[in-house]
Amino acid sequence: MAEACQAERETLHTLVEDLGGALSTSIRAISDRYQPEFDRISDDAPDGGGIDAKLGIEVDIDWETITIALDLPEVTMTLQSWSLDLPQVTMKDKRIVFHTPSIRMVRRKIGQYPEFHGFKIKWKNIYADVPETFMQQHEIVMGIPEVRMDRTEFKLDVPEFAMRTQQLKFDVPQITVKSISVEAAELKEDAEDKAAEMQAEIAATKETLFGSARERIAGSASTYFTCMRTQIQMKRDEIAGAFEPGIAMTRQALSKLEDVKAGAEAEDTRARLADLIARRDAATVQFDAAVQRIAEEEKTVVEGLLRSLRGVA
User: Would you state the torsion angle of the CA atoms of residues 245, 251, 252, 257, taken in this order, to the nearest 10 degrees?
Assistant: First the structure.
């Protein structure tokens, strides 16, 4: 799993590094565009003349590196040994004897009628075929699935999360405007206006870059966690799939037994089906828990990254 998701992890960390470089490059380009303006203002400053003459204005641009700490996910894959009971299913023909209520016609005496022979009377019986309910025995031979649980061991990479602080660095100019003489007051105001204009453009550039970076970094983090969830989900589906043939065959056998109304045998098969489904659910519950842990960790990390990036834009 670690190797499968390595590319997604590197993409996330590279995005953060690239953001810092893009910010520095963009801000440096803005500063370079404004530098000639500040040079012009300095050149326009009055010169008092003489050996002790002072410049009328000074514009100092110092560069400061801004560092922002972002907590990015680091995952250590721990190889664990898992043991599960997985089903081995075989079909075995079984003779099934059962009884169902049926109706048959039987001849019954329903009365008598007189027969006259001179002065003698003879009574004759009256017969009729009437329905009678009885339990009819049936015998069938059908394949009944037999499930044997075999202990299976396998290795699984289980992620353990830790947060590693990665520094997002970019350079911003700090501008200081000094007026040395009264005559330079207007130039000082002009320089301060240009400085404010430049800082506003830098702030807008930061907002634009961070605005697009938020979605990209959050999306990359989500892709990384989705990769890890998918790896565990695939193993979970593989384990669950081992139970499906037995469940399907048992359901089919139960349906046939219910159709022929083999009550006792159907009840036993229904119980075996319920037990097999319960064993499948028990085998997959630990995978479901691992997937849930990753989902919760993803939510925490993505929300933390977005908070950090909003705070610096």
Answer: 150
Burial class, 33, CB count within 10 angstroms (exposed 0-12 / middle 13-18 / buried 19+): exposed
> What SS3 class is residue 132?
strand
Q: Check the CA dihedral 156-157-159-160 and report its sign.
A: positive
CB atoms within 10 A of CB 177: 20
Tell which phi-psi region holds residue 118, choosing left (phi > 0), alpha (psi between -120 and 50) or beta: left
Q: Are 145 and 253 spatial neighbours (Cβ–Cβ below 8 Å)?
A: yes
**Residues contacting residue 214 through CB under 8 Å, at least 6 positions apart:** 305, 306, 309, 310, 313
With a CB cutoff of 8 Å and minimum separation 6, the contacts of 120 are none
* Residue 247 neighbours by CB under 8 Å, 6+ apart: 273, 276, 277, 280
d(CA 224, CA 258): 49
Q: pLDDT of the chain along its 313 residues, tens only?
A: 546 677 887 888 788 778 878 888 888 898 888 888 888 877 776 655 444 445 567 778 888 888 777 777 666 666 667 777 778 877 787 888 877 788 888 888 888 888 887 778 888 888 888 888 888 888 877 778 887 877 777 776 666 766 777 777 778 888 888 777 766 777 888 888 888 898 899 888 888 888 788 788 888 888 888 888 888 888 888 888 888 888 888 888 888 888 888 878 888 888 888 988 988 888 888 888 888 888 888 888 777 777 776 655 4
